[in-house]
Design goal:
The complex is a heterodimer of chains A (about 280) and B (about 250). With about 280 residues, chain A is mainly α. Chain A contains eleven helices and no strands. Chain A has one domain: MetI-like (MetI-like fold, Orthogonal Bundle). Chain B has about 250 residues and is α/β, with parallel strands linked by helices. Classes of the chains: A mainly alpha (about 280), B alpha/beta (about 250).
């Protein structure tokens, strides 16, 4: 009798023991679980799209079927429109983003290190940063017309001011004792900046670049939507005029894909550049 | 010869409109090859004192001298081991030591050998090519000590170097430091809040009250100091006396 009671008691406590599941806070999914679920989400979305269009519930003019989008995209690829659109957008992106990043790194590092530059830059940047980029677009057209330079300008306004603040932050996160170490080794401030502060901030700087690259894509499309004669954004506006919803959807998906690809490239570079940061194995 | 002299040191911070005095009339001399610990309740200014001696912080009045020469900021004559881990993460253990040696102007051809010697000194000869991210806290501090010793400073300044380590590792580190110091004599200023650590390591213990030096205890325990020395009656008695002095200040404040 007593041993029976004990057994049921044991069984109860055994039952009560909590198992970690995917709905436990902080519990990471396994790689297989993660892949299965994320692929399933995409599959579901595509299925929903297919159902909505194939059943005729949504008119093709609002949302064309997958087949039509694919067909339209391959037609555009065959006659070269797609390639030239991607090329001119990538070109603008590369120039403007590089320019903005280089400026932001130089100015951000100076402002993060030296009180003088901090006092000059930080309040100004904080102010400009809250001005909506969109509001600058008419002004940029007025100033520079509608050529590539205007696209550079819009992307620059959108990313530079955010980047500067992120660079200042990256420098601020360098442990003060690293600088102290340089001092006790008799290094000059210039050497401390080049040999200690910048290498130490580099992973954060790279991260800031990766994040701001995502925003830059948005500003690129904005600039091309408003006033342009080429590029991905331009094609989207033109297609709207002719109710070519298939092109619009295709280009939006393409933009997502391009963003994802650049992000993955940056991440891969990060793993190589900062391999010393990998956790203890 | 390597002595460190602090002369009538004054230091205060401005705190809003008022000024808070953190150090007042500090007179302290570290003799050649003497191991001096500075203990005191947190906030008494012991870390500030060490930063000033290192040349990393300004002071209002007084003088800091190394071998009778007033210091002009930080310099290679004083090696510093910080409480926080200061290994540069993008350099290997050996790279970190070579970094210091190069900064100190050591010929490039000798750097590698000297770095290896010092890694062996802290028993990390086989971990030379590992990144700091792959080392435990204790190992990182051992590399930091090796780095601070590598360029042969006259004086070693240590600011709670084992403060962030667990009790077991801390004990091992203390033993390692005693061994190194007893072999390679050097003038050391060692800031700690761990009284047992101070007694175990030092020739002399300086107890600080808030902003001033309260009292000094000579540690006459024999050297070399072995593992079990903390069980000796003199050890326990001294530890007790030092603690009593520190507590006196906590009560009056």
């Amino acid at each position: 009798m007593r041993s029976d009671e004990l057994q049921t008691l044991q069984r109860q406590t055994k039952k009560k023991r909590r198992r970690f599941s995917l709905l436990t806070i902080g519990k990471e999914p396994t790689r297989a679980q993660f892949l299965t679920i994320s692929v399933a989400v995409f599959a579901l979305l595509i299925l929903a799209w297919w159902l909505a269009t194939a059943s005729g519930a949504i008119k093709p003019i609002f949302l064309p079927g997958i087949g039509r989008v694919w067909h339209q995209m391959s037609t555009l690829a065959q006659n070269g429109t797609l390639q030239s659109d991607v090329a001119s957008s990538l070109y603008r992106m590369a120039i403007a983003f590089t320019l903005s990043s280089v400026m932001a790194i130089v100015i951000g590092v100076l402002a993060g290190c030296y009180g003088l530059f901090k006092a000059i830059v930080e309040p100004l940047v904080d102010f400009v940063r809250y001005m909506p980029v969109v509001a600058f677009v008419p002004l940029t057209i007025l100033w520079t017309g509608t050529d590539d330079f205007q696209k550079f300008l819009v992307i620059w306004i959108g990313t530079f001011f955010q980047q500067v603040l992120m660079m200042i932050d990256a420098i601020k996160r360098v442990p003060p004792d690293f600088v102290g170490l340089g001092r006790t080794l008799g290094m000059s401030d210039r050497k401390i900046l080049l040999r200690i502060v910048i290498p130490s901030a580099l992973p954060s700087i790279w991260d800031a670049l990766r994040i701001s690259l995502g925003w830059a894509w948005t500003w690129l499309v904005l600039a091309e939507l408003v006033a342009s004669t080429s590029g991905l954004g331009y094609r989207i506006v033109v297609s709207q005029r002719y109710f070519q919803t298939d092109t619009i959807i295709g280009y939006i998906l393409l933009l997502g894909l391009l963003g994802l690809m650049t992000d993955q490239i940056m991440r891969a570079a990060e793993r190589v550049l900062f391999r010393y940061n990998r956790r203890r194995s | 010869m390597a002595t460190l002299t602090l002369n009538k040191l004054e230091k205060s911070y401005s705190l809003g409109k008022s000024r808070r005095r953190v150090l007042h009339g500090i007179d302290l001399t570290l003799n050649d090859n003497e191991f001096v610990s500075i203990v005191g309740a947190s906030g008494c200014g012991k870390s500030t004192l060490l930063s000033i001696a290192a040349g990393l912080e300004d002071f209002d009045d007084g003088d800091v001298q190394v071998d009778g020469q007033s210091i002009q900021g930080p310099g290679l004559d004083r090696g510093v081991v910080f409480q926080s881990y200061t290994l540069l993460p993008w350099l290997t253990a050996r790279g970190n030591i070579e970094f210091a040696l190069k900064a100190a102007g050591t010929p490039a051809a000798e750097c590698r050998d000297i770095a290896q010697q010092h890694l062996e000194l802290v028993k990390l000869g086989s971990s030379a090519d590992r990144w700091p991210g792959e080392l435990s806290g204790g190992m990182k501090q051992r590399v930091a000590i090796a780095r601070a010793l590598s360029y042969r400073p006259k004086i070693l300044l240590m600011d709670e170097p084992f403060g962030a380590l667990d009790a077991m590792t801390r004990h091992q580190m203390q033993q390692l430091l005693i061994e190194i110091w007893e072999k390679h004599r050097l003038t050391v200023m060692f800031v700690t809040h761990d009284i047992e650590e101070a007694v175990r390591l030092s020739d002399r213990i300086v107890v600080m009250g808030p902003g001033h030096i309260d009292s000094t205890f000579q540690v006459s325990l024999p050297r070399p100091r072995h593992e079990g020395i903390n069980r000796a009656p003199e050890f326990i008695e001294l530890q007790h006396d030092v603690l009593k002095r520190i507590h006196q200040h906590e009560l009056t404040n």
